Amino acid sequence: MRKEAFMTKRFFKIPLLQTNFTTRLFMLIENPIYYYCVVLFIIFCFSLFIFSRELPGGLRIMTAKSNSMSPAITKGDLMVIKNANNWYEKGDVVSFYAQKPDGTEEIVTHRIYAVSGNVYITKGDHNDAIDEQKLRPRLIIGKVSAVIRNVGYIAMFFKGSLGQFMCVIIPGVLFISIEIFRIFKYFEERFQYHNNGTKET
């Protein structure tokens, strides 16, 4: 009976079956690999959340992907875009949806060069010519209200294939490998205990 009770207690110490939150929390803090996995995964999820949707107050966070607005905005800069409810004027730097030659859409950030009736004419500060496509208000995402230099490279990294590999795949493989190792270790200890008990009998 004592042996069965002991084995029952040991069974519930399998890592994947532990439900004690405090125990798991201390394990995360004490084990640097767990800490690395959790922190990277949280950063990855946070970056996806921030850069994929509109935030409260009509704000959006975007990254400049070219130097067409240099020197005001350069590649890798982080831009805070605010929806101005179609109230834009000459000189404003706006982000908008533009159609590419293949028919797909891309987000472009250029300055309003002129206003012609109910459409805007845009131009990149670094470009020699104005944009061919006239901009209608419904295509405008918002006006650039702030620029943070070079911080956008961090977002580009996490959204890229290398960032996803480092923040999702590697932590996932490490986490699963550690849990499998702990389970095998548990069964090895259980097997040794069983053999020792048999010898004593």
Automatic annotation (TrEMBL):
Q: List membrane-spanning regions.
A: 33-52, 162-184
The Peptidase S24/S26A/S26B/S26C domain, residue ranges: 58-144
Instruction: Write the Enzyme Commission number(s) for this entry.
Output: 3.4.21.89
Intracellular or extracellular location(s): Membrane
Per UniProt, the keywords (alphabetical) are: Hydrolase, Membrane, Protease, Transmembrane, Transmembrane helix
Q: Coiled-coil regions in this chain?
A: none
- What CDD domains has UniProt attached to this entry? Peptidase_S24_S26
Instruction: Give GO cellular component annotations, separated by semicolons.
Output: membrane
A single BP term in Gene Ontology: signal peptide processing
Which InterPro entries does the record match to this protein? LexA/Signal_pep-like_sf, Peptidase_S24_S26A/B/C, Peptidase_S26B
Highest taxon of the source? Bacteria
* UniProt GO molecular function: serine-type endopeptidase activity; signal peptidase activity
**Under which name does UniProt file this protein?**
Signal peptidase I
Q: What organism does the record attribute this protein to? A: Candidatus Roizmanbacteria bacterium CG10_big_fil_rev_8_21_14_0_10_39_6
